[in-house]
Amino acid sequence: MASDSGSRRLRYFARSFFANLRWHRRDMILIMVVKTANPHTGFLTPKFLRAVAWALVATIAVFAITTILLAENPKTAAEYNSDPAAMIEAYRHVEAASVSDAIEQLLHQKSYMSHRMQAIFPTKFAGSALTVKLVKQENNDPEALTGMLQAIDTGAPGSVYVMQVENGADIAGIGGLMGTAMFARGFAGAVIDGGVRDLPQLKRIGFPVYSTGSVPSTSVHHYRFGGSNVPIECDGVKVMANDIIVADQDGVVVVPREHAAEVLIRAQQLDLSEHSMYPVIEKLHSIVEAVKQFNRI
């Protein structure tokens, strides 16, 4: 029989699985619709229905196996530090709020972006930061933004494109062309301290972008590339290249790479205790009693 701690871990990761499934199911089905819809009639074919069924079965199986392994065999900080890919994958399963709390408890600092940073659709992702800075400067130089584009073409799969647009609340730092390139290269998402445009295209391909708002403007002739993989400030938060970006419906958090493993483990613990509290609150009809039992709120 599993221990009480192991059972709580299992329940927590099960909740995480279904939460992640909700975020990704829409994009998965959208892709399958595009690939399997009958181009002549416009109706979905039996092939589509089979694809949906098998995709859901495969997704559930993979996440179920991962859930059990993570629940019963939590990794140590040393193990995460020696396996960065596993650490990033684990960050995809914790809540941004727990990551923010973990940073505050361990590092005593604010690393979350403000309410201004909003996603173009509900999403959840994590990845290593590829930073880009745009400097405000009127110009007629056709090469002024070439470095910005080169940064995308050299970015690794799983990267999160994090851009500081100097005084750029009303300037689109990203649009359909850049977003499509990032999507094609396997970027996890983008976080722009500035505007975004071409939302229909970005939503069509399912590429997640956080920004301070949608605007129809352009940075061309108004900005110059200021550097990539350099220290930047995004919505008031310092971001270094390769810091870990965690984003979900609660917002965006920046995890300093040198503290990523310890923050992850603490965030997992916070997630576990919070998710374990939900059934207790429902059973006792009391948050006060649950707080007493778990010694947290």
Task: Tell me the CATH architecture of the largest domain.
Answer: 3-Layer(bba) Sandwich
Q: Please, how many helices?
A: 10
The SSE order reads: HHHHHEEHEEHEEHEEEEEEEHH
Total count of strands = 13
Strand proportion: 15-25%
How is the biggest beta sheet arranged?
8 strands, mixed
Q: Report the principal-axis shape.
A: globular
User: What's the name of the CATH homologous superfamily of the largest domain?
Assistant: Ribonuclease E inhibitor RraA/RraA-like
First and last CA, distance: 30 Å
State mean pLDDT (0 to 100 scale).
86
Fraction in helix: 40-55%
What top-tier CATH class of the largest domain fits best?
Answer: Alpha Beta
Q: Could you please say which CATH topology of the largest domain applies here?
A: Glucose Oxidase, domain 1
Secondary-structure-based class equals: alpha/beta
Radius of gyration (CA) equals 21 Å
Low-confidence stretches: 16-41
Notes on the structure:
With 297 residues, the chain is of the alpha/beta class. It has 2 domains: 4-95 and 260-294, no CATH class; 118-255, Ribonuclease E inhibitor RraA/RraA-like (Glucose Oxidase, domain 1, 3-Layer(bba) Sandwich). The chain is 48% helix and 19% strand. The protein has helices spanning 4-36, 46-72, 77-82, 84-91, 96-107, 146-153, 176-184, 199-205, 260-284, 287-294; strands spanning 118-119, 125-136, 160-165, 172-174, 189-193, 195-196, 209-211, 213-214, 223-228, 232-234, 237-239, 244-248, 251-255. The strands form 3 sheets. Strands 1, 2, 3, 5, 7, 9, 12 and 13 form an 8-stranded mixed β-sheet that branches. A 3-stranded parallel β-sheet has the order 4-6-8. Strand 2, helix 6 (146-153) and strand 3 form a beta-alpha-beta unit. The longest helix has 33 residues, at 4-36. The chain is globular. The chain starts with a helix and ends with a helix.
